[in-house]
Amino acid sequence: MALHIYSYILHNKGVIDDTAFEAISAAGVIDPDASITAVAAGSGLDLDAVCNQASKHYQEVWKIDSEALSYPDAEVIRRLLVRIIPKGDIVLIPHEHFGMDLAPGLSVMLDAAYLSDAVDFGGIGDGRLSAIRQEFNGQVNTQVECDISNGAVITIRPGSFKGDEGQCANGPIVDKTSEAMEGGIPAVGRRFLKFVEAEVGEIDITQSEVLVSVGRGIADEDNLEIAFDLAKVMGGDVSCSRPIVDAKWLEKERQVGNSGKTVKPKVYLALGISGAFQHLAGLKGNPFVVAVNKNPKAPIFQAADVGVIADILDFIPELTDKINEIKR
Amino acid sequence: MEIFVCVKRVPDTGENEIELDSGSNGIKRDDLVYSINEWDNYAVEEAIQIREKHGGSVTVVTVDNEEGDEVLRREMAMGADRGVLVMDKAFEGSDGRGIASILKAVVEKEHYDLVLTGVQADDGAAQIGGLLAAMLGWPYASIVNEIEILDEKKIRIHREVAGGNLEVYEVDLPCVLSVQTGINEPRYVPIRGVMKAAGLDVPVYGTADLGLSPESVGEAGATVKVKNYFVPEAGDRAEMLEGSTEEIIDKLIDLLKSKGGVR
After folding, report:
1. CA atoms within 13 A of residue A215's CA, in its CB half-sphere
2. Domain boundaries, chain A
3. Could A101 and B231 be called an inter-chain contact, meaning their C-beta atoms sit closer than 8 Å?
4. Which of A4, A145, A283, B78 has a 20 to 30 Å separation from A319 between CA atoms?
């Protein structure tokens, strides 16, 4: 029997998120015969626009429309979804900040299995779905089996599947508001107060053409000087991965990645950066990526154009000296 | 404020190359250097800081074998008041839901106001906090990078969302939060603390202590099972520059010139 798959749609200011189309591809890999329903929550014209975009590619779109959902709170959305999604089916949710809030608890409330951060799927056999995940910061992949006989909530890593925008489904939009809101907006123990935008700092790495980006391999705050020296001779700026900001060695505005800036330089030097997917997610526009790392198994070498196995503390000053020599 | 912090012992990916063990379909664990999961260490530090300001206690809990004792004592040396090692043959092979249901039983043995986990651990699943909160029926917030205690009943938190932006919420206690790295600066473990922690008693709980049936946890109760480990395909691997450092740098500069990195 073909599966029924629900896909929770993320959107912002009336624009549907790319992950909505990636979920269609993911669902197709899970089960080519599955029927897929998009579920979108929000309010007013923005939500209508999102549902219209979704219906072009989904066989069916469910919408939950309420003023109270204009800024969706995962604690509320979870309880609404439990009122409308039948037990025993599959629910796909993007593995990002909203999905991480929403998804694990949803699986508990639906009595379904929970499979997190899938990057690919094998087939289904004997009520078990085969999936690929990554562990140890991307150093190792695992093949896991998930028992889907009682349904499953599955989070999908953004960017792992190609967005399927080609299919024209023109599915109907079904208003599920009254069913979801029966009994009113569910009472939850947390209240959204406000959204705070990242501060704009002195440096804007999103505009840099050359980025000298450092990670844990820089080892000590005092060593940052060599990165700034190299950036200077290359006419670029210094950026970094998350651990450098966590250690308070550089300002948040220099962080590349999911929780930092999305950059689009021409040349990106990843120096002592392991290459976690959260970091790579901030790298757009197909730059020329050079990775220098002493660990030959670092995942960054899968993402780079050119790699060097070396300790950056030795390598950076030598590179700086050589460039200086040429320029003289 | 009675605070419960879930911690995990993980291979330190900064210190280790993870290698496959072809014999067992697993990874070679014998030579790995283990340490506390980085996110969990921030969670423990946050708990200690809350206690220092508002009183109460910090309990660190791990589901592990006897090796877990070392991680608990490390966090106790940092300042956690007590540690609980949750250990039973029946727990081996637990999936995320299994671990969360074990932790739920531990939380419910006593009274806690706040449960903290790290955002994620070595398997990158980011699941335990959310599963545990739903099982307890408590509010949950993930990726928390600021916690402010308002009174005995509620707190205000910041969640980190895409692009370095923040969401601010008020959350009722008791609740579960998953803590992001960078929320604080974890203290170094003081030598005096190590000596003190070495002398403390760390209770061990098993299925019987927690009222759990062995078939509901461990491999038997798992709906998600790891079948195989493999190295990611190296299809698009970078062109590796080789030779002496000087040769490598010359090649690299030529490439950078052609790409606009050196002008």
Report:
1. 24
2. 4-180, 205-327
3. no
4. A283
Cβ atoms of B56 and B80 closer than 8 Å: no
Q: What is the CATH number of domain A205-327?
A: 3.40.50.1220
Closest partner CB to A135 (pick from B122, B159, B185): B122
Question: How far is it, in rounded angstroms, from Cα A151 to Cα A129?
Answer: 11
Which ipTM value was assigned to this complex?
0.94
Residue B78: inside a domain: yes
- Cβ <8 Å between A140 and B27: yes
Angle between helices B191-198 and B68-78 in degrees, nearest 10: 130
pTM (2 d.p.): 0.94
Q: How far is residue B74's CA from residue B80's CA, in Å, rounded to a whole number?
A: 9
User: Which residue in A140, A149, A192, A258 has the most chain B C-beta atoms within 10 A of its own C-beta, making it the best mutation to test that interface?
Assistant: A140
Contact A116 B250 (CB under 8 A): no
Q: What is the mean pLDDT of chain B?
A: 94
Separation CA B9–CA B23 (nearest Å): 24
Same fold: A4-180 with A205-327? yes
C-alpha distance from A201 to closest chain B C-alpha (Å)? 12
pLDDT at position B235 over 60: no
Query: How far is B86 from B16, CA to CA, in rounded Å?
Result: 26
> Does domain A4-180 bear CATH number 3.40.50.620?
yes
Q: Which amino acid is at A290?
A: V
Interface of B with A in 188-247 (CB under 8 A): 223-232, 234, 236-241, 245-246
Q: What is the pLDDT of residues A135-163, one digit of tens each?
A: 988 888 999 999 999 999 999 999 999 98
